[in-house]
Amino acid sequence: MNKDDINSIKALLSSPKAIVIIPHKNPDGDAIGSTLGLYRYLKMYNHNVIVIAPNDYPDFLKWMPDESTILKYESQQEESDDYIKNADILFTLDFNSLSRIGDMEAAVTAAQGMKIMIDHHQQPDQYAKYMYSDVSMSSTCEMVFNFIDMLGDSDKINSDIATCLYAGIMTDTGSFRFPSTTSATHHIIGNLIEKGARNSDIHNNIYDTNSYERLQLLGRALSNLKVIPEYRTAYITLSQDELNTFNFKKGDTEGFVNYGLSLKGIIFAAIFIENQQENIIKISLRSKGDFSVNKLSRTHFSGGGHTNAAGGKSDLNLNETIDKFISILPQYKQDLKA
Fold first, then answer.
1. Would the pLDDT of 32 be above 70?
2. pLDDT tens readout for residues 69-91
């Protein structure tokens, strides 16, 4: 995003506007943190702002400031459609293709309001008038911090904004251990703590809220863990029956895939989760080093994301999906070799 774009956006925001902020479907910590951080910032200028999420999200994200104001499109469609239709500006955060917002896609595509994208995923679609797209960034929350700073308003970041942005950066960097975490990321984190983000409380709210059933589900997932040593690959499966047995709730499998990646010698890990309601197998992929799970997911599983973290889906059943996954590994033998 160049200086002219920033000046144009600043002029656009100089008087109160009707603004809708949208995260991707099945929003994670970065999606919720970035939208709520931007929401609180824009409210300072008396804009009429609403965050509309395509669907619900895990309980461990529902403590954030202003979270209760978020509309869920899946259950509040009529009200949401009115906001989208009448918006002067639509901010789309933490995604770069309108296909990532599920049932909202048609309404947002048809909306006449100015679209502004803030996102750090690879290969963005060209649907927005203004695009702040940077794949080198750790998170969309880091980008929202920079966006506010580029507008000359870093002094406007209060403890609530800082809390939301810290939460998103923390979750999308794997608590600051992923390669996308840079010195600039740590400088921003330090700034957010100075502005009132209580790092210990944020960590506890997100990571230390396990239910007994979630830990039992983790045990089942680990018992299903398989290793393919010749490709330095590990994968986990969870069937719908297994999810039901342990009273699965949205977000319960967050982070499970990383257990496979933590194994000595493993550089590629996957988890396959059956979702009978959507009739798909949901896939999360993680890697170390230069092996691009983004490319693999885009090629084989209708997904995408980052070099080391991506998602996808399969319309085959669980067993067929695993067979397909194993069958494609030889294509990547050179990339996965020891």
1. yes
2. 999 999 999 999 999 999 999 99
For residue 96, which of 306, 315, 309, 314 has the smallest C-alpha distance?
Answer: 306
Angle 160-172-177 from CA coordinates, rounded to 5°: 115
| 92: helix, strand or coil | strand
Are 192 and 277 within one domain?
A: no
Residues 67, 32 within the same domain: yes
Domain of residue 263, residue span: 212-336
Condensed to tens digits (0 to 9), the pLDDT of residues 115-129 reads 999 999 988 999 999
Sequential DSSP letters for 179-197: TT--HHHHHHHHHHHHTT-
Does the pLDDT value for residue 240 go beyond 70? yes
Residues 60 and 122 in one domain: yes
- Domain match, 152 and 276 both: no
Say whether both 158 and 240 belong to one domain: no
Which of 183, 207, 231 is a domain's end point? 207
Domain containing residue 9: CATH number? 3.90.1640.10
Average pLDDT over residues 139-158: 97
pLDDT tier at 140, thresholds 50, 70, 90: very high
Cα 14 to Cα 21: distance, rounded to the nearest angstrom: 18
User: Using CA atoms, how far apart are residues 86 and 17, in angstroms rounded to an integer?
Assistant: 10
- Give the C-alpha separation, 201 to 199, whole Å: 6
* Nearest by Cα to 238 from 256, 255, 250, 251: 256
